[in-house]
Design goal:
10% strand
């Protein structure tokens, strides 16, 4: 889908588009900044989730749990993290949460619509990545970066409908 977006719009390729470790057809797209993610979302008739939407979806119906699967510590059977694989894995490689959403912890940080703080310099990233330690996989964990950052650890997820 992202390849079609690039071909149709002429939008710039993600930073790692030609690296065989990243951005393969079944992997999450990484190396895109917040503006790239927003452009794709708009092109596809969707948008980036708000931080609150992201957290609600990640919990998958669980309340008060540390991770999308509950309170059990992360393991390599639940998520791609701590460089245990060395790059993003194919989407859906790990069990879905209660809302049938895959890879809500690990694999790739996900851009959210929100600013990280009132100074409006950085955007929110959630979910942890293939390089995060286990703390970064907690549902409550939040981090940030400039909206121009293009990292092999960061990607995005789209939602439809109004916030």
């Amino acid at each position: 889908q992202y390849r079609k977006f690039l071909q149709t719009t002429g939008h710039r390729e993600p930073k790692y588009w030609t690296n065989s470790n990243y951005d393969q057809p079944n992997q999450p797209v990484v190396g895109d900044d917040w503006h790239d993610a927003t452009a794709y979302a708009e092109w596809s008739g969707k948008r980036l989730p708000t931080e609150a939407e992201w957290e609600w979806a990640t919990r998958g119906g669980l309340k008060g749990k540390r991770y999308p699967w509950g309170n059990q510590r992360p393991s390599s059977s639940r998520a791609n993290y701590d460089e245990n694989v060395g790059n993003p894995t194919p989407v859906g490689s790990y069990p879905a949460n209660g809302y049938r959403l895959h890879d809500m912890a690990g694999n790739a940080f996900e851009w959210c619509q929100d600013w990280y703080s009132d100074d409006r310099t950085d955007r929110v990233l959630r979910g942890g990545s293939w390089g995060s330690n286990s703390d970064g996989l907690r549902v409550s964990y939040r981090t940030h970066n400039t909206p121009y950052n293009r990292s092999s650890y960061g990607g995005f997820r789209c939602v439809s409908g109004s916030p």
